[in-house]
Specification:
Radius of gyration: 29 Å
Helix content: 25-40%
Distance between the termini: 55 Å
Number of helices: 17
Largest sheet: 8 strands, mixed
Structural class: alpha+beta
CATH architecture of the largest domain: 2-Layer Sandwich
Strand content: 15-25%
CATH topology of the largest domain: BirA Bifunctional Protein, domain 2
Bound molecules: adenosine monophosphate
């Protein structure tokens, strides 16, 4: 492998074409393969957080009547262009787009709302009782500059309420997010930023006012905003660069150009939020930057770091389903980042219960003992004991050291004598004491030692046959 890496490096030095240069990135300094920039493995310790968060989301969603949906990892590129908008950062810079063998343009999903909306139409969900309540927990892909909390493959969970147009639903969606943050122990870290960006007509009108305002001021804008000026002028309002910020402070306010219907909708939403005791910060500069939003937009910001490390955001997208070829169907949704939830939990020193710890380690000596072990290990697992066996050829001492390393509180030892006598030794690893038990009684004895309530007896539920 080192040789391969060395060749790749020297090829790059010789100024070979891009593939050779890129090949270099696939190796670590020591010459072994590594992941591409911005993506990472989810190792077992982080999976404990993933699993816990997923369970919380599933529980809260079930309670509220949401059902899970997964859309494909890739879709036609046009779907994202049409829904998110050409002027958005996502479509203009961040999509992983490729051609398949027949020349179709496909894109790894950068977000899920477009796919869920497509699925709603394609699967005729308008025929279901409305609103349709869906949630997802999926990987997403954006070619963004990798940094803390910003990756090229990241996980998002999200909800969509499709088929009804009422601010009470927006309030309920926000409440659901709050409940999940509460369950994860991090609710106090975020502030809810709230705004309305009106109907598309009102927004179009406001955008032309904004373009007029910025005309002649281009030189004071950052490079990003210069680019956005004619593609997505609303985004100039939430730029963090000093000069852009000063200009945006002085810009005409969106509120003055909003339509009556949107203002009333927003006022009603705030009443509902007040009613359920959810505080919010009115943020007239919050725009979200995706074309499909209408009226309500909101984000959960870190109270200290602001927008930089938002944990999630959402809003209403009343025009999207129609834009994608369906009947006019109002909807509201939310998406939150799993990596950022985990980072916040760790920052708060919150650990999640680990279900991975072993109960029993089974050690054996000799071929006959190993045969007995295979049956015993199965019996122990069936009894709800998390059991691992050392089925290699190491000495008993090596196996006991392994048992120690795996942190199992009990080890079962079977040697030649035990096979002959039909017994096994159960060793309490902490106390260092051991007892001889009849082979067939081993599961029962260990269940007693571990305790019924600690057993891992997960059952996915009864199968039903039609
Ligand atoms: P957005 O719809 O772009 O606001 O994304 C919703 C949430 O997903 C954000 O608030 C983040 O928590 C998360 N997120 C978005 N992009 C990334 C990324 N590149 N890496 C990690 N998390 C992300």
């Amino acid at each position: 492998m080192e040789e391969f890496a060395r060749k790749a490096r020297s090829r790059q030095k010789l100024g070979n074409p891009p593939t050779a240069g890129r090949l270099e990135e696939s190796f670590s300094k020591s010459g072994s393969f590594q992941t591409p920039k911005g993506v990472h493995d989810i190792l077992p310790a982080d999976h404990e957080y993933h699993t816990f968060i997923k369970k919380v989301i599933r529980h809260r969603c079930r309670q509220a009547g949401f059902r899970r949906i997964s859309t494909p990892i890739f879709e036609f590129t046009e779907l994202f262009k049409r829904s998110i908008g050409d002027g958005s950062d996502i479509v203009s810079k961040e999509m992983y787009t490729f051609e398949d063998k027949k020349g179709r343009s496909l894109t790894l999903k950068p977000e899920s709302t477009a796919g869920v909306a497509r699925s709603y139409i394609q699967n005729n969900m308008q025929a279901l009782p409305q609103p349709v309540l869906l949630y997802y927990f999926e990987p997403h892909f954006r070619y963004d500059r990798p940094q803390k909390g910003r990756y090229r493959q990241f996980w998002q969970f999200g909800f969509e309420i499709i088929g009804e147009n009422d601010p009470a639903l927006d309030a309920q969606l926000i409440q659901l997010v709050r409940k999940i943050h509460e369950d994860l122990g991090i609710d106090g870290l975020f502030s809810l930023q709230l705004n309305t960006i009106g109907t598309p007509e009102a927004r179009k009108n406001y955008m032309s006012v904004l373009e007029d305002y910025y005309a002649g001021k281009e030189r004071s804008l950052c490079e990003n905003c210069k680019e956005r000026l004619h593609k997505n002028v609303l985004r100039l309002l939430d730029c963090k660069e000093e000069d852009c910020r000063i200009l945006s402070e002085l810009a005409p306010a969106m509120r003055d150009y909003l339509d009556q219907e949107s203002i009333e909708f927003h006022e009603e939403l705030k009443e509902y939020l007040d009613e359920i005791g959810i505080s919010y910060v009115e943020n007239p500069k919050l725009v979200r930057g995706l074309d499909y939003y209408t009226k309500t937009v909101f984000e959960f910001w870190d109270k200290e770091e602001g927008a930089q490390n938002a944990v999630g955001g959402g809003g209403r997208y009343d025009g999207l389903i129609e834009l994608l070829g369906g009947h006019a169907t109002p909807a509201v949704g939310y998406a939150g980042g799993i990596e950022r939830l985990i980072a916040n939990m760790k920052r708060e020193k919150i650990r999640v219960p680990s279900k991975d710890e072993l109960h029993v380690f089974v050690a054996q000596l000799g071929k006959e003992a190993k045969k007995k072990c295979l049956k015993l290990i199965d019996d122990l697992r069936e009894a709800g004991l998390k059991t691992m066996g050392a089925l290699g050829k190491g000495s008993v001492n090596i196996q006991l050291r392994l048992a120690d390393k795996f942190n199992a509180p009990y080890t079962v030892l079977i040697g030649l004598t035990e096979v002959r006598e039909g017994t096994a030794i159960i060793r309490d690893m902490k106390k260092g004491i051991q007892e001889h038990v009849k082979m067939e009684k081993v599961p029962e004895r260990l269940v007693k030692l571990i305790g019924e309530k600690n057993l891992d007896k997960y059952s996915p539920g009864e199968l039903l046959y039609s």
